[in-house]
Specification:
single chain; about 140 residues; mainly beta; 11 strands; Jelly Rolls; 4-stranded antiparallel beta sheet; 5-stranded antiparallel beta sheet
């Protein structure tokens, strides 16, 4: 991903999807199935990785976009420490009231002083990013 640019997170592995609502291969979005409008609980966590220089990760944002527009976001600015912040994780959760066909995507933005910060999904066998949703009512 480009430094300090909002980038769609491409979650490409599904554990389960009872309504085939998430596209994990082309547009990486959750789309409300026909007849399933209502309130949904969405959650996501992503980790950023800097190059290890002092305070490399300057800030980190995670956002839900609904139908292409930013709906809600979480923002984090780590304090300067030594050794540097190399791995930073951020979480976001939100209840959204959605109609049939509405779609939700996750975007992340990492700003680093070195220009080399990145998102990552797995490291040493551990999951470093996830996204999920479930319907909670009408």
């Amino acid at each position: 991903m480009s430094d300090d640019a909002s980038t769609k997170v491409q979650f490409d592995t599904e554990l389960f999807d009872t309504d085939s609502a998430y596209d994990s291969s082309t547009n990486y979005r959750f789309t409300v199935p026909s007849g399933k409008a209502g309130k949904y609980y969405f959650y996501s966590m992503c980790s950023g990785l800097g190059d290890g220089s002092n305070q490399d990760v300057l800030d980190f944002q995670l956002a839900f976009f609904v139908n292409g527009s930013r709906n809600n976001y979480s923002y984090m600015t780590p304090e300067a420490v030594t050794p540097a912040w190399r791995y930073v994780s951020i979480t976001l959760a939100k209840v959204l009231d959605l109609s049939d066909g509405d779609y939700v995507e996750v975007y992340a933005q990492v700003n680093s002083d070195s220009g080399t910060a990145q998102l990552f999904g797995t490291a040493s066998g551990a999951t470093r990013a996830h996204f999920g949703a479930y319907r909670i009512g009408d």
